[in-house]
Amino acid sequence: MSAGALVLTILLGNIAVFCASVLQTVSGFGFAMVAVPALALISLELVPGPSLVNSAILGIAMFLDERRLVARQETQWLIPAIALGSVAGALLIYLVPTDWSGIVIGSAILAAIAMTLVSRPLVLSPPILSAGGLIAGVMGTVSGIHGPPLAILYQHQPIAKIRATMALIFIVACLTSLAALAFVGAFDARLAIMGLSLSPGLIAGFLLARKIRAHLPLRVIRPIILTTATISALTLLWRSV
Predict the structure, then answer these.
(1) pLDDT per position in the chain (241 positions), as tens?
(2) What is the span of the domain harbouring residue 216?
(3) CB neighbours of 157 closer than 8 A, spacing ≥ 6?
(4) CA distance 211 to 119
(5) Count of domains in the chain?
(6) Taking the CA of residue 112 as centre, how many other CA atoms within 13 Å lie in the half-sphere pointing to its CB?
(7) Which of 95, 164, 184, 211 could share a disulfide with 69, CB 3.0–4.6 Å?
(8) Is the distance from CB of 166 to CB of 29 less than 8 angstroms?
């Protein structure tokens, strides 16, 4: 990649991450559903590793902001399941040809959107939490998108609880996925630096969203997240086939 192309990639990547950061800081989810297809359209090198780096950073910022509201008993079931799913996802990454990555990511996003749209309120029992965590771990490691299975679990919970609990889960999920990707050779220091180069847009989006989130209810943000993700995923699939 030439110097000019690298600068353009970082600039466009920061814009994508900024928008995704605003949406997740307001709603508690949506960063990866918006950022991953957009970043994949810019450069497939930006997913899943660099995207996961930014998702982890945003999770840390959101957790520190609202950590008192975390549903800690529920995370005790989610976290081990996500770790197990991350291992399975890393094995899939190792087996899937690189040329198929755009198709895999685009398909995963559309499947996630469909899951979110048809879901009903769930009782957050240990088996349900474990199943959701396992699916999130696999999906997050393969595509960089942990959120949809978790959004299905929590979408009918209070918004403050969603933001705080998802933040902690995303930290653990992203770090676990990054470790699994590194183990199979799909994440290294160069990709970590690429991820960090997108963090200015991430932090700017977080700071802006903290000021406006009280005025943006979830019923407004959710359609924006799903519409943006659908358009990006379809575009990515069209370019990949």
Answers:
(1) 678 889 999 999 999 999 999 988 888 877 887 888 889 889 989 988 999 999 999 999 999 988 888 888 899 999 999 889 888 888 877 776 656 766 776 777 777 777 767 666 778 889 989 988 898 888 777 777 777 777 778 777 787 788 888 889 889 889 988 998 898 888 999 999 999 999 999 999 999 999 988 777 767 767 776 776 677 677 767 766 6
(2) 3-240
(3) 165
(4) 30
(5) 1
(6) 36
(7) 164
(8) yes
Secondary structure of the chain as H, E, C letters: CCHHHHHHHHHHHHHHHHHHHHHHHHHCCCHHHHHHHHHHHHCHHHCCHHHHHHHHHHHHHHHHHHHHHCCHHHHHHHHHHHHHHHHHHHHHHHHCCHHHHHHHHHHHHHHHHHHHHHCCCCCCCHHHHHHHHHHHHHHHHHHCCCHHHHHHHHCCCCHHHHHHHHHHHHHHHHHHHHHHHHHCCCCCHHHHHHHHCCHHHHHHHHHHHHHHHHHCCHHHHHHHHHHHHHHHHHHHHHHHC
